[in-house]
Amino acid sequence: MTKHSNAGPRARTLHFQAKNIVLLAAGLAAITLGYVLLAGGSTVAAPLLLVLGYVVLIPLGIIL
Length: 64
Hints:
This protein is mainly alpha-helical. It has helices at 18-39, 45-63.
């Protein structure tokens, strides 16, 4: 019997660089600020920040 390892050509790992971490942190900050503003009653800035965080920054941080 031969041992199979996950280190072969089919193994995939995530390699985050500094730009990924910055984008993910910016997304988390935008989401946090959006919820804080939403709790304060903001009807314009809060949804914009939440959409920016969830739809733009977090996906870019994962994809790039």
